[in-house]
Design brief:
The chain is an all-alpha fold. It has five helices and no strands. The termini are far apart.
Length: about 170
Amino acid sequence: MTNRELLLMRQESTLAKVMEMIKYAEAKNLALLTFNLAILVALSGILTLDFSKAYVWIPLIFWGLSTLLSIISFVPITNSTKQTLIKGLNLTYFGDIAKLSSEEFHKLISVDYCSDDKYCSLISDQIVINSRIANRKFDFFKLAIRTLFVITLLLYVVDFLDKSRV
């Protein structure tokens, strides 16, 4: 097997892994979106709290924010920007690949494997762009989950305040 064939095999394998991470991230965000919407629909039907008080609206606003973050995660951003070369990267991990420009990734992956091959360059571009998409989806998922954590705490506070006023 030639060096070029080995590089192409590695790049295609990495691209397949990155695409699987995008699918996984989208499945997680879809599950969170479904959960959030189900809770919002359920709350709209059974909520008997006094909506004139601010402490009732705060958890609902956070739930809406979590839902919005889940929706935003489905909008891919594929524009590439130049970034500085980072040492000590794992070139099979989408989080590290997302930090690189296409040229930097191609330069790192093609050392000793291929020269200025157009196909290698195109595969490198796809790996970097899709790594950024996957990384962004996971970032939105983490932010939406943190928002749900805040909601849970706020609901306990709302419940406490509502019971203490009775």
